[in-house]
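Archive transcription. Copying these from loose printouts into the bound notebook so they stop getting lost. Printout 1 of 2:
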Amino acid sequence: MDADQRAGVLTHPYVLATFSYTKSSSPIHRGVFLTRNILGRMLKPPPMAIAFMDDKFDPSFTMREKVTELTAKPACQSCHVTINPLGFSFERFDAVGRVRATDNNKPINATADYTAADGTLIKLSGARDVALHAAESQAGQAGFVRNLFQAMVKQPTTAYSPELLGQLTGHFRRDHYHVRNLAIEVAVIAALPK
């Protein structure tokens, strides 16, 4: 397999399969995961739950075309304008994370325009671009620090201080993204009385 098709843990088959349907990819599930857990952006719950019914779409549609049609309403777009581009960027991977070139006998379109939390427009051409954005963006770095802290301490950073996330993220950047040092700093903070 060509190494440029994978982008670290985000394109690991286990992660991709976790956020898929049984027989098909799910750009929505993948996009929500990336938005909330990787980029640290908040999403409100949908105004109404809509079950994805594959048989309700034109049988010639790709998954991207189905999701585009399903989420076209303005009420949906308030969140899906963020979710869909991220999920579409992972469409080169099927339900179990295998690389694919086609969906329903049509070429995969994994390109998308994503608007970052700071308003910057980012042209995505696939999963690697999402991974690079997550690694290089302040939102992605803060999301990583927040998730590591939560996993280690079992509490949000705000339980310790409203400024703690910014402080830890700043230290993480200045330390050239050394994860072990960040984990040690989190462990020390958790061990000391609040």
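Printout 2 of 2:
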Amino acid sequence: MGISHPLLLEIIFHVGNAIALIAYLFRDQIHLRVVVIVSMILQSSYYVLISAGGPLWDPLSWKILTIVVNVVMIALLFRDRLRFGIDDEVKPLFEAFGVLSPGQFRRLLACAERRGGAMPLTERGVRPTSLFHVLSGAAEVNKDGRRLGVGAGSFIGEIAFLTGGPATADVRLQAGARVLQWDVGRLRALMRKEKAIDIALRGLLSHDLAVKTSHSALPEQAGLPNQGALSIS
């Protein structure tokens, strides 16, 4: 099945390899893999046409395998960028991260549990086993006899999570409120596995803490200033 135009074969071979080099100039993984597939198709054509005795199956098989792997990876990358599974309740948290892909955020959600109703969240002086994020309603912070209502968008237990120390206040979720609850051990395991989630979560927790420190009489556990849900009772 050889081709009678060796110059055309040379062009196919060199263009295919040149495109493979160009692929590495792309930072976007989908674009990179699409260009790699184009390169592999051209190189496969070369190994199909080069020999009059038929395709050169050894190199051709590897090119085909490379095409298949990249097609699968493109499908996974597209899936990672789709927003399915991010409902209205958790959408504000996803948008607050800003840097996480929908897939990364879904993996963060997968190790959390949604809980609601009146219940204690943290006890002062005791190291929490969970990190919380208030989705709706309010939680009551009690420290040194002072009480503060914390609204949606706030993290609870972030100081203990960041430092590994005990909770700095007693916090109780109010009736009708809902939170995301992460087991600390499971969450740390995910953060060790996925550096992007580690960096994004630590950054958001640090920002949340900085805002609380500058706007609250209870800096360790106060809510975000733009929620309009803060009240001292």
